[in-house]
Specification:
The complex is a heterodimer of chains A (377) and B (103).
Chain A (H helix, E strand, L loop, with lengths): L4 H18 L26 H19 L4 E8 L5 E7 L11 E2 L2 E7 L18 H10 L20 E2 L9 E5 L2 E6 L1 H4 L10 E3 L13 E8 L17 E5 L28 E6 L3 E17 L4 E12 L15 E4 L8 E9 L4 E6 H8 L2 E2 L3
Parallel strand pairs in A: 2-4
Antiparallel strand pairs in A: 1-2, 3-4, 5-8, 6-7, 6-17, 7-10, 8-9, 9-10, 11-12, 11-14, 12-13, 13-16, 14-15, 15-16
Helix pairs in contact in A: 1-2
Chain B lengths: L2 H20 L15 H12 L4 E9 L2 E8 L4 H6 L3 E2 L2 E7 L3 E3 L1
Parallel strand pairs in B: 2-4
Antiparallel strand pairs in B: 1-2, 3-4
The chains are: A alpha+beta (377), B alpha+beta (103).
Chain lengths: 377, 103
């Protein structure tokens, strides 16, 4: 696929502005690479403004001439080490620089083999490549360094995600209701406790991890179980859960490669002593054991304190590496090892302030309350 | 006597012998005891247990046996002394958790 002259001219203009920005003189009073000891070719001081104007005019007047040569992809203004402007011609990798003049109208010309330029949404096949399957496989295998980072879509489960108005939380897993896909997490992660409304944006990564609205939207709030604030015996929250509408192109079903993998679709009820694991935004893959079930517990929120009943309490197996940390809320907790390995058992939502004790909703309450099923193995 | 009747008679005789062989008239019969329904005990007592300074109570195991854990915001001797050592026969074990927070 080749660019029309119009596209090429756009690229040339774009290149001019980028080059000009890179070459801008340092701001007065600033240190760093822009000072007088700047590395030549990085930030240089524009010394010859008339020559710059002349170079711009040459590009304007003769760009058609440049692009008439085979393999030329872009032409723009760059800078020599002494700050004088040069014309830079970008060539396709299989093009030849032969015949390109050393100077045009007195302005030196240099070449660079850049390959073709493409708009970012041009598909691999349209770029004329015959190794697209390999490229895609490599891209899928190459993961961002951290579960807090932006992830290629569909995103793994257990990574940073949250409502546009919160700080950070974890995408628990993908679930289904009927033939529709949803992302599952806590109400305080996907619905800003009780403040969110249907249609609110869920970002990956979470806002405090750099998620930008609307560029990083992976789902929209669909349904949230209200959290009733209060500590009296009449307050009986069982779940802190919400689902957000999404699809398989945005949210996957498996953790990052350093996690437990894909949860099973079939769930289990919690039992004291059960060994469990989770993958979450803050502490990644961790293991623990269920230390208590049927637990009545008071949990602090932004809006107040809420009483929960029939909850799971989990302790870390490792004294040093806690089972969860702030930001892991929403993580799916699954069984570790044995015949029930990776069967979901809980939805992580709270912990003691020293992180020694983690609290989770029994997953079966969550599935029943929201009428959903785990989209797993 | 028909064949089925003979079979039934033989089966009855075998069953009778077996029963005689295993039963010991001197054996003390201990009624089978169901494990305590700790969830029910917690539900029954939680309103009186969840007083100021108590952050939670749940079903756990302590030294391999069923127990009820009561979680406290801090180590408060007066509060500890006010809590029972057992509830309906199930031992109570106290643990300082600090406050729980949605994370």
């Amino acid at each position: 696929m080749n660019f029309s002259l119009h596209h090429r001219a756009l690229l040339a203009s774009l290149f001019f502005f980028v080059s000009a920005l890179n070459a801008a003189p340092p701001l007065p009073g600033t240190d760093g690479p822009g000072n007088s000891n700047a590395t030549p070719g990085y930030l240089v001081k524009v010394t010859d403004l008339p020559a710059l104007e002349k170079a711009k005019n040459v590009i304007d007047a003769r760009s058609g001439e440049f692009f008439a040569r085979p393999g030329v992809q872009a032409a723009g203004i760059s800078w020599a080490a002494d700050g004088s402007p040069v014309i830079k011609i970008f060539l396709d990798t299989d093009a030849s620089a032969a015949g390109i003049p050393a100077a045009v109208d007195g302005i030196p010309v240099i070449t660079e083999f850049s390959g073709k330029f493409f708009a970012l949404n041009v598909s691999c096949e349209d770029r004329g490549r015959d190794d697209c399957d390999v490229i895609r496989a490599e891209a899928a295998a190459a993961q961002p360094p951290n579960q807090r980072d932006w992830h290629p879509r569909p995103v793994p489960i257990g990574v940073s995600a949250g409502h546009v108005d919160i700080t950070a939380g974890t995408l628990g897993c993908r679930v289904t209701r009927g033939c529709h896909n949803y992302a599952l997490s806590n109400a305080h992660v996907f619905a800003d406790e009780n403040a969110g409304v249907v249609g609110d944006h869920i970002l990956q990564p979470s806002p405090s991890d750099g998620g930008v609205d609307p560029d990083d939207v992976i789902a929209t709030l669909y349904e949230s179980v209200p959290i009733v604030m209060g500590t009296s015996g009449s307050v009986k929250n069982r779940v802190d859960a919400a689902i957000a509408a999404t699809d398989a192109s945005l949210v996957g079903t498996t953790t990052r490669t350093n996690g437990y993998g894909t949860p099973r679709s079939q769930t289990v009820n919690p039992q004291v002593g059960m060994t469990v694991q989770k993958y979450g935004r803050s502490s990644s893959q961790t293991s623990g054991y269920i230390d208590a079930i049927n637990t009545t517990v008071l949990v602090g929120y932004k809006e107040g304190t809420a009483r929960f009943v029939e909850q799971i309490i989990i302790k870390s197996i490792d004294e040093v590496i806690k089972f969860s940390r702030a930001g892991d809320s929403g993580s799916l907790i699954v069984v570790e090892d044995g015949a029930d390995d990776r069967k979901p058992v809980g939805l992580l939502f709270a912990s003691s302030s020293d992180n020694v004790l983690t609290i989770a909703n029994p997953i079966n309450f969550v599935l029943a309350e929201l009428d959903i099923e785990i989209d797993g193995e | 006597m028909s064949n089925p009747a003979i079979c039934a008679a033989i089966l009855l005789a075998i069953a009778g012998c077996s029963a005689e062989n295993v039963s010991d008239p001197n054996e003390t019969i201990v009624p089978k005891q169901d494990p305590p329904d700790i969830a029910a005990i917690i539900a029954l007592h939680q309103d009186s247990m969840m007083q100021a300074g108590v952050t939670g109570m749940g079903e756990s195991r302590c030294d391999g046996k069923p127990c009820i854990r009561i979680y406290l915001e801090k180590a408060d001797p007066a509060l500890v002394n006010s809590l029972p050592e057992e509830l309906d026969g199930v031992p109570v074990v106290i643990e300082v958790s600090g406050q729980f927070e949605a994370r």
